[in-house]
Structures are given as structure tokens and as C-alpha cells.
Amino acid sequence: ATQEQLPITPGMACSRATQEQLPITPGMACSRATQEQLPRQPKTLFNAYGPTEAVITPLVWQAETSCSEPYAPIGFPVGHRRAYVLDINLNPLPVGVAGELYLGGELLAQGYYRRPALTAERFIPDPFSSTPGARLYRTGDRVRQSADGCFSYLGRLDNQVKLRGFRIELGEIESVLLKQPGINEAVALLKSVNTVTQLCAYIAAILTNL
């Protein structure tokens, strides 16, 4: 089942799974609330991450225990894929420091059809590869890497706003909200009310009595 389907019909998606089937959550970020809706033993949860430009699943995480973070980790590179956490100058960042996720290795798209400027912006030469013509894809996703090499999704880089001189990471607000019990989804944004710009948040609660 996809992330878009599970919050709507978790019982239907899970009741049809047999002991041999494995719940896989591609697409949107896998929230803690979604994990709690899925069955576990004897089944296993896989969280598959990847944009279309990298052929969907360059990173995969296998859930062994319940995750306490707002989003499930996106895991480790699979096959001949590579993943890096880099700063704006393409320097690798230390363990635990947030930065942009870049994907390399095999199975990257050639680019965007009839959009050469966007292709040049998102697909760049790979400075870490000795293979001629190797490229990296800039995902625009903010991540960090743990000491064991596992990647965690933190939100979109373009999710930063400025209000009254302060830069605000909307993704961080959403992460805090998602840690609260009973919250399935959360969105933070700026909204103008009577010409006054305010920081607002909207939540979707978990419905337990369907």
C-alpha cells in the first residue's frame, strides 16, 4: 500500500496482508502514526525512499522496532546506489549534521524532457566518482546520517520561511507536532489574516472509532 492510501483505509490495507506479505511504504514520508497502523510480526515493514529521478527506491529501511521519531528512517543505499549529505558547497557533512541529500550511482534519470536548464540545476557532475560522466541528483530533501550509515528524512529544504526577521523551518514545527499522541499528519505555514501574517499549523487526528 502507498502512503496516500494507508491513512484512509489502514484496516483494509493490512487485513488483506498474509504472513508472507511485507508492508512497504513508498511515496510520502512514513510518519510514526502510519507505522502504528501497520501490522508487524510475522510481517516486516520496509520504508522505501526515492524520487522518480532516481528510479523510486535508492534507499530502503527495514523496521525492526517501533520508531520514536516523527518519520521512519529512509535507510541505506541499495545495490550500486550512493547517497551523500552535503552542504551548499558540496562538502560532505559530519555524522548527525543536517544537509541536502544527493543521490548517485546507477539508475539516475537522464534529465527532464525539453528542460535543459532544470536538468543542469538538478543533475550535476559527481565530484566523488572516478567514472567518466558520473552525476549526482540534488533531491532538495533535508536529511542527516547516523553513525551506522542510516539516513533520516527531516523535510524539504524549500520549507523555510521568514517572519518578522526570523527564519523558520516549517518542517521542524511539523516534526514536533507529529511527536504528539493522536496526530497523524501536520502542516505548518504562513497565513495572512486581516493583512497580518501569522504562523499557523493544521493537524489531522487519528480516528480510532471508524
UniProtKB/TrEMBL annotation:
Keyword check for Phosphoprotein: yes
Record keywords, A-Z: Phosphopantetheine, Phosphoprotein
Highest taxon listed in the record's lineage: Bacteria
MF (Gene Ontology): 2,3-dihydroxybenzoate-serine ligase activity; phosphopantetheine binding
Cellular component GO terms, alphabetical: cytosol; enterobactin synthetase complex
Every AMP-dependent synthetase/ligase domain range: 26-113
One record GO biological process: enterobactin biosynthetic process
Protein's name according to its UniProt entry: AMP-dependent synthetase/ligase domain-containing protein
Native organism: Methylocucumis oryzae
